[in-house]
Amino acid sequence: MRETLAKNVVLNIKQLQQFRTIKIQIDFLRPIDKKESTKRRLLANVMSNSSAKYPSFKAINDREMELYGAEINAYTRSLLNFNDLGFSVEFADPSFLTGNTKQLENNLELLNDIIFHPNLKSADEFDEMAFTTEKRNMLSNLEAVDDNQDLVSMLELAKLVHLNDQNRQLPIFGDKEELKSLTNSELVDYYHQAIDNDFVMINVVGNVDPEKFSKLMRDKFTGLVESKNRRDLQVQFEDFTDLIKMPATKTDQKTVNQSHLALAFVSDKLEKGSSHLAPQAMNLIFGGDDQSQLFLQVRERNSLAYSVSSTYQPTNHLLTVQAGLDGKDMAKAIALIKRQLEFIQNGEFTDSQIEHAKKVLHTRREVASDTIQHYIMRSMWETVYPEAVLAEDKYQNELAKVSRNDIIRVANRLHIIAQYQMMGE
Amino acid sequence: MAEKLQKFVQTLPNGFRVTAVPLPGYKQTYSVAMANFGSVDTNLGSGKYLPAGIAHFIEHKLFAKPGYDVSEKFAEYGANANAYTSYTKTAYLYQTLENPYDNLKVLLDLIEHPYFTEDNVASERGIINQEIQMYLDMPEWVLEERILEQLYPGDPIAKDIAGSTDSLQSINKDNLLATYKNSYRPQNMDLVVVGNIDFDKILKVVDDSPFDNNQTAPIVKHNEATKIGPGGQSSMNISQSRAAFGIRVDTKLSGYELVKYQYILNMILETLIGESSENYQAMTQKNLIDDSFSYNVVAENDYCFIIVSGSTNDPKAFQDYLRNCLLNNNLEEILTPERFERIRRDAIGAYLFAQNSPDAIANQIAELQFYDVDYLELIQLLNSITLDDVFTASKEIFMDKNFTHYNLIADGK
Description:
The complex is a heterodimer.
Chain A: E1 2-6, E2 9-15, E3 21-31, H1 37-48, H2 57-66, E4 71-79, E5 82-92, H3 103-116, E6 120-122, E7 125-126, H4 128-144, H5 149-161, H6 176-181, H7 184-197, E8 199-206, H8 210-220, H9 222-225, H10 241-245, E9 248-254, E10 259-267, H11 278-288, H12 293-301, E11 305-313, E12 318-325, H13 330-345, H14 351-368, H15 372-384, H16 392-401, H17 404-412, E13 414-424
Helix pairs in contact in A: 1-4, 1-7, 11-14, 11-17, 12-13, 13-17
Chain B: E1 8-11, E2 17-22, E3 29-35, E4 43-45, E5 48-49, H1 54-61, E6 64-65, E7 68-69, H2 70-76, E8 79-85, E9 90-96, H3 100-112, H4 118-136, H5 139-151, H6 165-169, H7 173-183, E10 189-195, H8 199-207, E11 232-236, E12 242-248, H9 255-273, H10 278-285, E13 294-300, E14 303-311, H11 315-327, H12 331-334, H13 337-354, H14 358-369, H15 378-383, H16 387-397, E15 403-410
Parallel strand pairs in B: 2-10, 11-15
Antiparallel strand pairs in B: 1-2, 3-9, 3-10, 4-5, 6-7, 8-9, 12-14, 12-15, 13-14
Helix pairs in contact in B: 1-7, 3-8, 9-16
GO molecular function, one term (chain A): metal ion binding
Protein name (chain A): Zn-dependent peptidase
Organism (chain A): Companilactobacillus versmoldensis DSM 14857 = KCTC 3814
């Protein structure tokens, strides 16, 4: 069931009895702006760890435990060109508990407290303890990023890929220097801007009665139902033309045991008549699973890396490769990775590789539907960018249509746009 | 009340235990074959040890068969396969949408037919060595290994699960095969299948694939716990220091009682230093911890310990605070019946959350069966714990002689 609660406030309810839990997720979206990313992440942390009614981390945690281990989660992430500030609560389906019939109402109220009744000291400031604790925690988390070499490698690649988009130069989870100078009153000011004006999506999955839930939302979430000025969403895609002409490269030396390699390619638009799933099939043959060329040739046959894989992002047509390897093998590994791409460009792959890729695409799609998050993400895409969602019959048609020539064409229309190397010393 | 899970179990004459859990509404089938054998099982007695990392090496190399790799077979039948090694278990698993019984045959082929050659062992060394290098760059991983070296000095549990660059050189096709034959016995393994499946068909597939490895009991040498270490620290090229406070709990409990004890220890730790505790608040306010702070209770045969760890600006103050708050704890005052009920509810919720996931169900069933615990009776186990059980346990564990620590100091701090 889908309904609009107010202008740019959308409610999606998926009633399912498959799961033992129920999840309610509320996402606030606006275009990514590098001046706002740090604020949004700190806001998520401050809001989710206390509220006016539960004014400490202990109080809110006690309440979650009382509600049979309810899990509150708050985050920011990038979704297309949007910064998604999200809050969710997941809790045990009351039909699996004895004598508890208020699980839904109580958890919805907790989510409402967190979003609309924050822990304020005054109209202009959050509770001092809540603000300083979360600011310190976030600073600590940002410092710890440097200790995660896989993540560092991917962030460096992202900086190169988004060389021409200043707003994406900053990671979605913020920046240490901006955080240090962020004040309590600035954050409260931003809280009102975001919560009052962002586009809102509410997604509910689990054993809930849609009509009853809709009424509960309207009664409890007046802050959403009565909103009038929420912004529209306009999907925009990045242009990588400059990087195709001149790929961006960077090499760092670091005191680490394992070296890292990250590559990014962009694919041209599909030729008319090609299957929409050809790039995903091509990625699977290239580096998408343990039967792929990268896994079998780089890891298994030549023992050059423990981890080596590729990922394709359909919305921006980016294909990325990640590998963890011995620094002395870097040149050899790069040559071997390029050779695997040529292997596909030349059409040297077998028919059984094509069939395997199709089978994996089908299986992944079906298996994903065994999770609550699948239904939430599907609803989100249907709301924000419906073109990205293929209906089941259309998906099966496109899958059946994937041909050898489609895959060869995709591989030949890939352009390297960025390369990052972290050399261990 | 909604319908509860159902479970079918049969132990075959050779001792191989087979379990199936139908999961209506789910599209996938998930299967796991688990050996009660992990990285700590290297003690041959008389002071002789297998090379560190041999269990993990077997896990990697069992996929190799004459002329093919088992992953290819799984792929042919549409399954995604994987494996993992822990301190005490090794598991092989697949997830599939179709052909659950053909994939089960492949899983049985995987665990029943080793094929180790000089060449395939040599090529695997390079891959595993890269895996070891990867973990050496992860401070949390390094810290866990170092605190275990303090908790159990010189013991196999203090070695990296994957071994070391040196120990890999001592692993060869002969000791791999001998170790496989000793440990991969039907009565030392569990098979659990979760999904839209028929138990009789599963039994038929298992019957048709005789598991004829040595059917006597495996040779198990218990590791003798040595004196706990005094603590230590070292520096690492990281941006933030990490600290670990360790508590060793030498208990003679096993099986069902050991699993119950693990729940009791978790309740104690949750009350004293969990996110809802006064101590967590105080440590946060003193700027000693951030939200990476956590504790982990491990209760296995021969090993029972607690590791409390996290990033910190002041490792010494972190250790001092924990030592004092645990030694001088006021558990009997603060663990009121109301709070006890809250913790119980939290555990019930966690049990239901896990039931959303076929892999969590399968892995927990397989593991718990080695401790004679029925996964479907976990709530009853939980309800059987009394406040007195918790208070009694707390008096036995918080003593200076059980404590140790390790700090990883960020370079330049």
